[in-house]
Write a structure and sequence with these properties.
It contains three helices and nine strands. By secondary structure, the protein is of the alpha+beta class. A hairpin with a 2-residue loop joins β2 (16-17) and β3 (20-26). 32% of the residues are buried. The mean pLDDT is 93.
Length: 139
């Protein structure tokens, strides 16, 4: 991908259950996304991941279980054409059962095909789900 100063750095959790992945629909958005978000000033990706997952899903990530999955880049959903979203994805175990919080309207587990059939999708999320499916981790 060419050098681009309009890159939005985010971090996300890949949480799988029965070969489906947990996605969130944030209030005011039309597409489901990977749970996670942008690091605050002074935070690294792992610190942001732990904070964001607690804020969005009311669960705690077990820090010793965090493993990097990969980095995915795509056109940022709902942003000008030159804006790239870079998502650093991690696997991790969690303590608790995920539930939507005040900033999340809905959470749902998706297979790759179920997500791709949605009327509105985010390109980066599509790339991640296709990669999970290719590796046999997702239906």
């Amino acid at each position: 991908m060419k050098k681009n100063n309009n890159i939005i750095q985010t971090t996300a959790l890949i949480y799988l259950k029965n070969k489906k992945v947990l996605l969130t629909l944030c209030k005011g958005k039309q597409a489901f996304y990977m749970p996670g978000g942008k690091p605050d000033n002074g935070e690294n990706h792992l610190q942001a991941l732990v904070r964001e997952i607690n804020e969005e899903l009311a669960v705690d990530i077990l820090p010793k279980t965090i493993k990097k999955y990969g980095v995915f880049e795509a056109q940022a959903y709902g942003k000008p054409e030159s804006t790239i979203l870079s998502i650093t994805c991690y696997y991790a175990d969690i303590r608790g059962e995920p539930v939507p919080t005040s900033e999340v309207e809905e959470i749902r587990f998706f297979s790759c095909a179920e997500y791709l059939k949605m009327e509105t999708t985010a390109l980066a999320t599509c790339l991640i789900l296709k990669d999970l499916k290719k590796k046999g981790l997702l239906r």
